Amino acid sequence: MRLRHTRRWACALALALSSATVLTGCGAQPEPPSTPPAKTADANPPAEETEPAPEPIVLPACDAMNATAQQEYEEFGVEMFEEPAGETDLAAFTEFSGPVAQEAMAAAEQQRGCRWPIHSQGTVIEYVAELPHDAQAPLIAALRSDTTVTEAALDAAASFSYESPAPNGYMSATEITHLFIGDVWIAVFDTAGDRAYAPAALEAVMSANPSLADAAADAGAGSDADPDEPQGAAQAAGACASSDGPAMLAASAPNVPGGPWDVTGQFSDVSGYDPCAALSWIVLRPEPCCTRFSITPVLFFHQGELVPSATVAQYAIDTTAPPARASESSVALTFMWPGSDFAGPANTATSTFTWDAATSTVVRSGDLPPS
């Protein structure tokens, strides 16, 4: 009897111990997962890349701002004018500019104006300003909305050009060109309407600010602008001649019969030449120049290249109505010839010359003087 109780007690004790082991987890435990070794800090962490600060805009000095105007001044103006070339105020800019352009100039971070007295009929005046893109936008929009303004590309810059008529019929119209590249705005006023000064103006700014070329290339490569919107240089990439108006005058004039013609630009007019336009022009004048009804041949150019078959070589251009651009691909010329009184009013006839892309020729419509 006692043995039976002892056995029962032993069994109960064993069962209790077994239960305690399960409840308390005193059995064999799995080894804890190993902890990966902590990473040590790099003794030389790579430096964070930061955007380089933009290079400051440099405005060229007057003697370096426009090589074409400076050369003409040194050749002709020094002996003819007491007032030397040099810096000028905004008086001329205000005279030839509307309120939108004046507001843009007031917003410029810096600006410089220079003038060059060239000859008795005119002066070249140029302004270079640092103007951020957001301040350029209203002016560019106003220029694009004006139907008398021609937009083109001049190398990497967007170019807008137009004429401001003279207050009388005897003086030349003022040729005005606005150029935009990066944060730089260039305005050129040629009060004689005599030569193309914009290429030299752009070249001087690009030479003083090499980073502008890189910025223009990056903007063109990464642009997601509306493909139907005029894009200046990007639109005309690969479609512009490398020569400017004076160079094309010097190369082309000697081949035109009836000379000698002025090849320096003192009398001949290269203001209509555009290295990117579908159709542009140069008017030749004799050397020495000239009588009222002197023959004034007109040379036509397609994207800056001479179209020899289109030259109009037998008429006089109306001195009171210079050639006028009708569109990017057409030009209106008004010819004149003597009336019954040689000193009285002249007879006139107007023709429009248009570049025909289908035939790669210049076609004419309208009237001509009698043979």
TrEMBL record:
UniProt key word Ubl conjugation: no
Pfam families for the chain: Lipoprotein_21
Record keywords, A-Z: Cell membrane, Lipoprotein, Membrane, Palmitate, Signal
Residues making up the signal peptide according to the UniProt record: 1-24
Keyword Membrane appears in the UniProt entry: yes
Region of interest called Disordered, as start-end residue ranges on this chain: 26-54, 216-238
Protein's name in the database: LppP/LprE lipoprotein
Organism: Leucobacter chromiiresistens
